[in-house]
Amino acid sequence: MSLFDLNGQVAIITGSSRGIGKSIAERMAEHGAKVVISSRKAGPCDEVAQALNARHGAGTAIAVPANISSKEDLQRLVDETMAAFGKVTTVVCNAASNPYYGPMAGINDDQFTKILANNVIANHWLIQMVAPQMIARKAGSVIIVSSIGGLRGSPIIGAYNISKAADFQLARNLAAEFGPSNVRVNCIAPGLIRTDFARALWENPDTLKRATSGTPLRRIGEPDEIAGAAVYLASDASTFMTGQALVVDGGATVT
Questions:
Q1: What mean pLDDT do residues 165-175 have?
Q2: pLDDT greater at residue 29 or residue 201
Q3: What DSSP letter does each residue of 178-231 carry, written as one string?
Q4: What SS3 state is found at 80?
Q5: What integer is the mean pLDDT of 4-31?
Q6: CB-hemisphere CA count at 13 Å for 212?
Q7: 199 — pLDDT class (breaks 50, 70, 90)
């Protein structure tokens, strides 16, 4: 069997109707996993699930819309996944928010609270909802999509970076808690990726040039270039890895 075979796995992926989350869902399905497509709007989720079922066979994917800011929505996401597939072997906490660009002095309390709630607390909620059955089976992989922003300072996305640094520690702490039950918790830390979420950082050609000119690969990343890291962390290839941050950034953090 391939180290990267995901047959028999069931993965919930938040924010998977587009961007990085969609690419992760597509690649996990390609490697044999059942996938649950989730974001706020039902229509885009249905479209992705239907495309995956057409490509890989009926029953490969289901769509369960959920707003990560709602604990009730997240519980329904887990409940409907359990009803459809009977288990959750992997959860990918990918959805995030960043309603503010600018120096920390200008952020209002509601914006800061939303960033921390959606990027950290919502991840905690969802993980705690799926963890008991992983612990009972003594198998599972939790993947948090953080960011290299959590490793560095920024004059324009400081609050977002604070939340992503917290995600690194969330993974480390949960790895220590869940490790004796053979449940692994890791982060992926993407660099600048061509997604709608990061559009403000790459849409302007001058901004993009500044962001990439000093990086070894001299370019922005594509969503599909993050998906392989998620497949690795969900698969048997990574069974001795937990509490870590896998940086995928075109070399931005080494220069």
A1: 98
A2: 29
A3: HGGGTEEEEEEEE-SB-SSTTHHHHSSHHHHHHHHTTSTT-S-B-THHHHHHHH
A4: helix
A5: 98
A6: 18
A7: confident
Calculate mean pLDDT across residues 38-62: 98
Instruction: Tell me if residue 160 is catalytic.
Output: yes
The residue among 90, 16, 84 whose CA lies nearest residue 46 is 16
Once rounded to an integer, what is the mean pLDDT over residues 191-216?
80
Task: Read off the tokens for 184.
Answer: 């692994």
CA distance linking residue 104 with residue 130, whole number of Å: 34
Q: How far is CA 179 from CA 123, 140, 159, 183, in A?
A: 18, 10, 30, 5
Measure the CA–CA gap between 90 and 229, rounded to whole angstroms: 13
Give the integer Cα–Cα distance in Å for 180 and 94: 25
CATH code of the region 10-248: 3.40.50.720
Compute φ and ψ for 87, nearest 5 degrees.
-165, 165
Phi/psi-derived region of residue 59, left when phi > 0, alpha when psi is between -120 and 50, beta in every other case: left
Q: How far is CA 151 from the centre of its chain?
A: 17
Q: Mean of the pLDDT values across residues 185-192?
A: 96
Share of the chain above pLDDT 90, in %: 89
Q: Please, what is the average pLDDT of the chain?
A: 95
Q: Which of 94, 80, 62, 175 is nearest to 129 (CA)?
A: 80
Measured CA to CA, the distance from residue 11 to residue 88 in angstroms comes to 6
Distance of CA 23 to the CA centre of its chain: 11
Q: Is-contact 167 123, C-beta < 8 A? A: yes
Q: Distances from the Cα of 61 to the Cαs of 68, 86, 91, in angstroms?
A: 20, 14, 14
Show the tokens assigned to 79. Answer: 């409940």
